[in-house]
Design goal:
Elements (H helix, E strand, L loop, with lengths): L12 E4 L1 H9 L2 H14 L11 E2 L8 E4 L5 E8 L2 E8 L6
Parallel strand pairs: 1-5
Antiparallel strand pairs: 2-3, 3-4, 4-5
Length: 96
């Protein structure tokens, strides 16, 4: 029987743009808690598939997004391999 090798995943450092903070502050408390929960999951790269992390296209080319829930998304960009900046949070209109 072969031993399972576990891939080492580094934790991601997250920073926030002022626009993200303003949008976050405008959300209802329950949704804010859900967003914070998903950000904590996002910090571990093992959870990226579960969060549906994906590249964005069009005007947001070079940016990425992930799901908070069925309706809400977070847009982010990489500042380095293990550092991201959260840019926006909102419904699908956040992609416009």
């Amino acid at each position: 029987m072969r031993a399972c090798e576990e891939t080492a995943y580094e934790m991601i450092t997250v920073t926030y743009k002022a626009t993200f903070v303003r949008q976050f502050d405008a959300l209802e408390e329950g949704l804010q808690n859900e967003v914070l929960e998903k950000i904590e999951l996002f910090k571990n790269q093992r959870n990226h598939k579960q969060l549906k992390v994906h590249k964005l296209h069009g005007p947001l080319h070079g940016r990425y997004g992930f799901s908070v829930n069925y309706k809400f998304r977070i847009v982010f960009g990489y500042s380095s391999k293990n550092e991201v900046v959260l840019l926006a949070v909102g419904d699908h209109d956040v992609y416009r």
